[in-house]
């Protein structure tokens, strides 16, 4: 018995040591392949957050390899396990809009007039994120702007491929607008808002509703470092910030492919730009081009990328890349001209920076009023860190105050 016990302890010790070494090795690899530019304030905090995210992903992958659970499921579990208590200033309720789960935040303070309504779509690359991951953010927006906020728990990839997330956000928004009298919201003062992938969804929903005559017009769209196109992953911001946490260039393409196809088998073609035929690229070059990026954003190590053609096989796989409900930057002028007033937030050290800059130009060229706020020291995901105790960033709070 004693020998068996000793062997068991020895086995567990070796297993734990090996597990730790695997995690540390993966962290070190990711750590050495990442870069935090000198313009980012509090770089040590960003490094710590990055290490936490890497560790979670690595542990998830190990658990998947030994058959306990999928890596994606583990990361989702870890992201959503924090629960907040009662909010003294808000009524909070979980509901279903049709078949879509939502969480509604309503200020408790009585209002003499109808409130504004905010449909909020969370970020997370269409793969991660939930009502829980953006709970603090939605509470803050509801409290500080005295708005009714509806957070949408749309279906996630790769289990639910495009257009599932878009359809959930669209249907939830339409349901809210059709039943708006129940929530004390002014039908002429409804806003769509989202960060990252959620910004993509907000832009797509806004475009779809722009031509609807049976619903009130949206008052505005708020796009927080949105991803808006998949034609060119070699724009200046993708090159300059390719290894800056919290969103690497490769990860941005990976998540989009997960949303589109449920796999990332064409990742290399997408990154090098050989996933779209040249004639299609040239057709959209009036909207997706480094030429439309202000020169001041190109000085930090940008090199023009040579256009590549693609194989028929790859083209067939990703042919939906040009649909505006996936890539809102590619919508026709007739749609863009009908869009509501817009707020776009971009971060200097973010691969998605240029998506926001290109959309800003498109909107302005089509007569849409745009308020643009650029965080010179910001990085992708910084808004969600506004209230993360000792891992908070002043730039995140600054950005959120401007959103409110």
Automatic annotation (TrEMBL):
Pfam family, one: Abhydrolase_3
Domain of life of the native organism: Eukaryota
SUPFAM superfamilies named among the record's database cross-references: alpha/beta-Hydrolases (SSF53474)
GO molecular function annotations of the record: carboxylic ester hydrolase activity
InterPro entries: AB_hydrolase_3 (IPR013094), AB_hydrolase_fold (IPR029058), Arylacetamide_deacetylase (IPR017157), GDXG_lipolytic_enzyme (IPR050300), Lipase_GDXG_HIS_AS (IPR002168)
Domain Alpha/beta hydrolase fold-3: 118-263, 323-383
GO CC terms of this entry: membrane
UniProt-annotated catalytic positions: 196, 350, 380
Keywords: Hydrolase, Membrane, Transmembrane, Transmembrane helix
Transmembrane segments: 7-28
Similarity comment: family membership: Belongs to the 'GDXG' lipolytic enzyme family.
Protein name per its UniProtKB record: ADCL4 protein
Gene source species: Stercorarius parasiticus (Parasitic jaeger)
């Amino acid at each position: 018995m004693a020998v068996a016990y000793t062997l068991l302890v020895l086995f567990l010790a070796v297993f734990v040591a090996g597990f730790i070494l695997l995690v540390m090795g993966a962290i070190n690899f990711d750590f050495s392949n990442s870069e935090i530019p000198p313009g980012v304030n509090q770089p040590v905090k960003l490094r710590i957050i990055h290490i936490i995210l890497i560790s979670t992903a690595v542990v998830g992958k190990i658990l998947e390899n030994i058959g306990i659970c999928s890596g994606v499921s583990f990361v989702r579990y870890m992201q959503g396990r924090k629960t907040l208590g009662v909010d003294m200033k808000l009524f909070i309720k979980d509901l279903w809009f049709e078949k879509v789960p939502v969480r509604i935040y309503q200020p408790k303070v009585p209002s003499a007039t109808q409130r504004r309504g905010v449909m909020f779509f969370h970020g997370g690359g269409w793969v991660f994120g939930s009502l829980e991951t953006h709970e603090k953010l939605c509470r803050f927006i509801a409290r500080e702007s005295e708005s009714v906020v509806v957070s949408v728990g749309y279906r996630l990839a790769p289990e639910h491929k495009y257009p599932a997330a878009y359809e959930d956000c669209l249907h939830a928004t339409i349901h809210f607008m059709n039943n708006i009298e129940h929530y004390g919201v002014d039908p002429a003062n409804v806003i769509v808002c989202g960060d990252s992938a959620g910004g993509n969804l907000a832009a797509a929903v806004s475009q779809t509703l722009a031509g609807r005559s049976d619903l009130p017009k949206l008052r505005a769209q708020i796009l927080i470092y949105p991803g808006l196109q998949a034609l060119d992953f070699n724009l200046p911001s993708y090159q300059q910030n390719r290894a800056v946490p919290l969103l690497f260039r490769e990860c941005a393409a990976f998540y989009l492919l997960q949303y589109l196809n449920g796999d990332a088998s064409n990742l290399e073609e997408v990154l090098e730009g050989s996933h779209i035929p040249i004639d299609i690229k040239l057709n959209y070059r009036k909207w997706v081009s480094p030429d439309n990026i202000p020169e001041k954003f190109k000085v930090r190590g940008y090199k023009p990328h040579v256009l590549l053609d693609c194989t028929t096989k790859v083209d067939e796989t990703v042919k939906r890349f040009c649909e505006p409900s996936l890539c809102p930057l590619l919508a026709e002028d007739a749609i863009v001209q009908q869009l509501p007033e817009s707020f776009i937030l971009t971060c200097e050290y973010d691969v998605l920076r240029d998506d926001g800059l290109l959309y800003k130009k498109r909107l302005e060229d089509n007569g849409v009023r745009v308020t643009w706020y650029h965080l010179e020291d910001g990085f992708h995901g910084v808004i969600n860190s506004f209230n993360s105790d000792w891992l908070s960033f002043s730039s995140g709070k600054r950005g959120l105050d401007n959103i409110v």
